Amino acid sequence: MSEQIRQLAVIMFTDIAGYTTMMGDDDSKAFSLLKINRKLHKKWLDRYNGKWLKEMGDGVLASFTSVSDAIYCAGAIQKEALDIPDLNLRIGIHLGEVICEVGDVFGDGVNIASRIESQADAGSIYVSDTVYRNLTNKKGVAAEFVKEEVLKNVKHPVKIYKVSIDHSHDSLSDRDFTEAEKRRSVLLKKRANAWKKPTTLIVTASFLFLLGFFLYNQFGNNGTGSEDLSRTVIVLPFENLGSPDDDYFAKGITDEITSRLSMIKDLSIISPLSAARFKESGMTIEEFAEELDVDYVLDGSIRWDKGSSSQRVRITPRLTSVSNNRQVWANNYDRDLDQIFEVQSEIAEKVSQALDVTLLQSERKSLQIKLTVNIKAYDLYLQGVAASSEISQSNFRMAEEYFEKAIALDPNFAAAYARLGANHADHWWHYFDRDSIRLDKAKASIDRANKLNPDLFEVKLASGQIHYHAFREYDEALEHLNDALEMKPGNSEVLSYLAYVKRRQGEYRDCINYLLQAYESDPLSSNIPFTLGETYEILREYDKAISFYDRGILLSPDWHGSYAQKAITIYHATGDLDRAIDVLMSSLNKLSDKEIPIFELANFYYLNLEYDEALNTLKQLKEVDVTDQFKHYNQYQLKGDIYLAKGQHEVSKIYFDSARVHIENRIRENPREQSYRSMIGHVYARLGMNKKAIAEGILATQLMPQTLDNWSGYERQLDLARIYSLTGENVLALEKTDYLLSTPGNFT
What we know:
Elements: E1 5-16, H1 19-25, H2 27-47, E2 51-56, E3 59-64, H3 67-81, E4 89-101, E5 104-106, H4 108-119, E6 125-128, H5 129-132, E7 141-149, E8 158-165, H6 179-190, H7 205-219, E9 231-235, E10 239-240, H8 247-261, E11 267-269, H9 272-275, H10 278-281, H11 285-291, E12 296-305, E13 312-321, E14 326-330, E15 333-336, H12 340-354, H13 361-367, H14 375-387, H15 393-409, H16 414-429, H17 437-452, H18 457-469, H19 474-487, H20 492-504, H21 508-521, H22 527-538, H23 542-555, H24 560-574, H25 577-587, H26 595-607, H27 611-618, E16 625-627, E17 632-634, H28 635-645, H29 649-669, H30 674-686, H31 690-703, H32 710-726, H33 730-741
Parallel strand pairs: 4-6, 9-11, 9-12, 10-12
Antiparallel strand pairs: 1-3, 1-4, 2-3, 4-5, 6-8, 7-8, 12-13, 13-14, 13-15, 16-17
């Protein structure tokens, strides 16, 4: 446990008035404003010797060593906020005793500042009587008594004063700026109404225009009129100078260096997933860095020399400032392979020194972590990480073998156990293996990892993933994921998983907020915009959903998910089946995995009364059925519906009966699979087996209630409404429909 110190401090609390309402009305605008607010605070805290402690939602907690600095800083923040639309700040300041730990403060002093801030009017600064008594003879500062208030959890009444500041007397007014600061201030003011530069992947005019258009519409004006003092770093893939077979090693070392840098809280690190797109971008390093709006680039080369009896690794890192293309730091490491962890740690420390970042003791300790003492085990671990980076059954099986071999060489390899456990859970989650043995293996692996090293980031992250993917234990997942986020603030993978869990809990706005934060550090991710699209679709904000699906398509044009969901969203939003069909038709020649898009395309043709086109489309399928988390696609069932609509009842019955046999076999293999139950209910209804149909539909809702999974549970409720309709239970169908329309979900 870190040491606690009691001391006198000036605590400043700020928050944005009306932010919660803004989140409900336009969360993208609200999140953009949050970024502006963050930059504004960091600028003035730096100039007035303030210490940024933490951000809590739309609130900022900071500390000062003098009342003067706190008051003038608050005044400067409020003055600049006046010129920023919708940035209506409340500020509360208190001088009192606080309890300090590394990077944090708490106690009565913090509580009083928070309570005073909540009493303040938008655009004002409220202070306690202890602050007021220290304002005597402060130039340009006036205060008026507001009230005496009994604050929650505070024993004695507190006198509250409202402070106003004549900015011509600021201790750091324009006349005190250097000429360089003046020029920078003018430049920043000119940029205050400029649109943020779009992120891009492919250097073509059309791509830049389209992606810029999407960012413009989604995030709006991100100009701040203030300087962002944070240091944003991107670690580009280090060039492999050895055998092509060692590409995984170069990638793994690059990712490990990135991982260690992300433990330094004063650095903002771009996700390695976005950084990995550099090679395919066709850009120079300078162009790529500028498009991603980063301050520094760390790149270099790696050579693994396997020829000598003592294997050596040569790493040449270079840190470059984007603003002036100046090399800030470089080095050449030629070490034995078993010193690789020391090299990774040293690179992270040298980068922080070059960027004038003071490391906390806890950060220094984190940087020194050695995942294993066995280099061969580490090599296998890196190969497993590389294999698991792409979602496929073959990749997951390959990764599983690598992790198991790594553990065989080092039975105390906690990170390998954690990755293996997450791999087992992912097999289950992605429907590659629905045998419950996978869940047992996931639990056994993560239990072992936690026994070996429960405080390791990899263990915290995997624990969160497994509680979510394997067991839907959301509170436990959130606990581990929040611990992981504390270790690596801004980590896009952790933020994304926090979003996923919140979505399953039905907290869709929280989900979006986490995803937008993740998008900051992983701007070239195609999965994040896809997930944002899904979530906006659930909230029936269809224009936003389509915009994000389009962005996902631009970033991953060979993946089916964004095309299929865009087509479905168009149908939900407009009923325009022709347009939905066009989206899917245009995608088929670009995709490697076409099964689900073919099913969806055939279904759209069926809904559009183009029955022969629907049947011809189904001929392209390689499989009888496909199952994901939400739906069981079965071509016998769909053919039955099509032939029934064509009036060919005998043919229809044959297909429905084939579907019945096929799905009943699936149920015998996995009786708790809720999507099978919904689909067999549909088939029973078509065969006139109404009681069995309704029973199966109800069972599906019991296997996946909305209390367990708000999103999937909604789909089962929707399936039950359809079964009620097919069986002639119109009153029940209408009641269920009314409910479905009253709550977020994929139904209009």
